[in-house]
From TrEMBL:
It comes from Chitinophaga barathri. It comes from the Bacteria. This is DUF1569 domain-containing protein. It holds the Pfam family DUF1569.
Amino acid sequence: MIALFPLSQPATLAAVLEKLQPDTTPAWGRMNAQQMIEHLDGIVRHSASDEGTEILSPEETLPKLRRWLETDKPLPKDFMNPVYKDRPPAHPDLETAIRSLHEGLAHFHQVYDLHPEHTSPHPVFGYLDYEGWLRFHQKHFRHHLTQFGLLEE
């Protein structure tokens, strides 16, 4: 299953993120580097939690949206998470935020190892299981790491 989300491998992600600096400018969007890392961390942690979130997509569209997760199509550059809000920094610096992201990813995998039946809601795709979240996170990480020039388009 981990092949669905290779960017979650600690060595792989560390190698990509070592090029990220606090002043790295994104190719699009308005987040800075630390906000992007904290955004990824927050969603990874949500995906392993029992927190609820409103599912904004109509029920009848969920099967089609979930099928899209199974494609290699990237998230569009202008994709806006409908529940994303600007937040004050959760960490004092980028290095601490990156460390938290690694911890969040380890927790994510641990939760699903211990509770393979766990599901958690995504505001666009509805309730996702481990495989669904792996697919989403891979697309989401690729989107933001490309945004900051850390991966090729």
